[in-house]
Design brief:
Elements lengths: L6 H35 E9 L8 E10 L5 E9 L4 E2 L9 E3 L4 E9 L5 E3 L2 E6 L4 E5 L2 E3 L5 E6 L9 E9 L6 E9 L3 E3 L4 E6 L4 E10 L3 E11 L2 E11 L10 E11 L2 E10 L5 E8 L4 E2 L6 E6 L4 E9 L5 E9 L5 E9 L4 E2 L34 H19 L2 H10 L1
Parallel strand pairs: 19-27
Antiparallel strand pairs: 1-2, 2-6, 3-5, 3-8, 4-6, 7-10, 8-9, 11-12, 12-16, 13-15, 13-17, 14-16, 17-18, 19-20, 20-24, 21-23, 21-25, 22-24, 25-26
Length: 421
């Protein structure tokens, strides 16, 4: 009878097979567990793009910060930014990173070049851990080649050679991110400007600003307004052209004299009237006087009006002497906004001046028939003083006074008593 083998002898082949297979079964499970734990410890805590939105061919930076939120250090082999579209200029900069301690952070900066068409791209931020496993994070990067918008708000249709005109421009940011260092420089052949450049600064999205240039055009030409601005660290330019045609165009102040009246009083002549600004600009420091052969005289040798706005008017009155002259020049002088002096001259005839009613008449002056007016009479009665019965009034007043005196002395009572007796 054959003896039975012990149980351990029968189980030996099974133990041998398990001993051979167990390393193969246990190793993948251990690696997966380590990779999951490491990935869970690392978190992306900040992402910054400059500029926020790229223009075509812009360069910029992407900064990514990672933080170890675990209790144990994490060993990092390399960090990369992977993209088939956006060019990463500093590729392989972070091939050897090292250990990131618990609670600590690391920041990685990538220099990018957006040599692509408009659109949104997703380069991958990739972290390769030394022990096992990796982390991937897609970063959206938008490319939009829209620039800022520059337009003319107000400008003359025709420029007068040598005369200063005003041009107003509108500058608007139609992008979804801010632009900075916005500057406008005017230039062109045959033009001069009061401002060599205007600085606007930062323009937020959907914001518009207006700027004004004072321009003097000497000839028909084309003027240009070059607008420079920055999108992140990138400088961009756009140019607005404006044709400048020249011609006759009266836009300055133009003074017109109306309602002239000449009054002569002895040797003094008074000239009065209205001055109207029929131009399109203000006239400043307006004065009115007379020229040779007339001589300005008191009380108003020079009449100061001051400023006259377009369509505004003012009265004036100047006095002068002009012995033997049949006409005198009336002079109107004024200044523009730049202080340039302009003069207007108007010839005033003296052939039929009005005699002043306020001047005393001559002692040899003829008296009109039927008039008993005396020189130096009571002016308050006018010409009717000769019709007042002065003597009759005085006689009546005298009789009344005498009657009152007689009555008060009792003469009337005594006469009455005598007649009764």
């Amino acid at each position: 009878m054959q003896a039975k083998r012990p149980a351990i002898t029968r189980l030996f082949p099974v133990f041998l097979i398990l001993l051979i297979v167990s390393p193969v079964l246990l190793s993948p499970v251990s690696a997966a567990t380590d990779a999951g734990t490491t990935t869970a410890q690392i978190a992306i805590t900040d992402v910054q793009l400059n500029p926020e939105i790229f223009m075509q061919d812009d360069t910029g930076t992407l900064k990514v910060r990672i933080t170890n939120n675990g209790a144990e250090p994490v060993s990092i082999d390399r960090v990369e930014l992977l993209s088939d579209d956006i060019t990463v200029v500093n590729y392989q900069t972070y091939d050897k990173v090292g250990s990131l301690g618990a609670g600590n952070s690391l920041e990685f900066t990538f220099l990018l070049e957006a040599d692509v068409q408009d659109g949104t791209y997703f380069p991958i931020f990739y972290v390769d851990f030394t022990s096992a496993g990796s982390m991937r994070y897609p970063v959206p990067i938008r490319v939009d080649d829209s620039g800022i918008v520059v337009s003319v708000m107000d400008a003359p249709s025709t420029f007068s050679p040598g005369e200063k005109d005003t041009i107003t421009l509108s500058v608007g940011n139609a992008r979804d991110n801010q632009v900075s260092s916005v500057t406008i420089v005017p230039h062109g052949q045959g033009i001069t400007t009061t401002q060599s450049a205007l600085f606007i600064g930062t323009l937020q999205p959907d914001v518009e600003k207006q700027v004004t240039f004072e321009v003097t055009v000497e000839q028909a030409t084309e003027m240009f307004f070059e607008v420079a601005y920055r999108n992140g660290p990138n400088e961009h330019r756009t140019t607005l052209s404006l044709p400048a045609t020249t011609g006759d165009r009266k836009v300055s102040a133009e003074l017109v004299v109306n309602s002239i009246e000449v009054v002569q009083s002895g040797t003094t002549i008074t000239i009065s009237g209205d001055v109207t600004n029929a131009g399109l600009k203000d006239a400043k420091s307006v004065i009115v006087t007379v020229g040779s052969p007339a001589q300005p005289a008191d009380p108003n040798p020079v009449y100061v009006i001051g400023a006259l706005e377009p369509d505004d008017f003012s009265s004036f009155e100047v006095t002068c002497t002009a012995a033997g002259a049949t006409s005198v020049p009336l002079l109107i002088e004024y200044r523009d906004d730049d202080g340039m002096v302009s003069k207007e001259t108007l010839q005033i005839s003296l052939r039929n001046p009005v005699q002043s009613s306020s001047s005393p008449p001559s002692q040899n002056a003829a008296v009109a028939p039927g008039s008993n007016r005396r020189p130096g009479g009571f002016g308050m009665f006018g010409s009717g003083i000769s019709q007042v019965p002065v003597l009759e009034i005085v006689a009546i007043i005298g009789v009344c006074i005498a009657g009152i005196v007689i009555w008060r002395k009792g003469c009337i009572r005594r006469l009455r008593d005598r007649f009764r007796k």
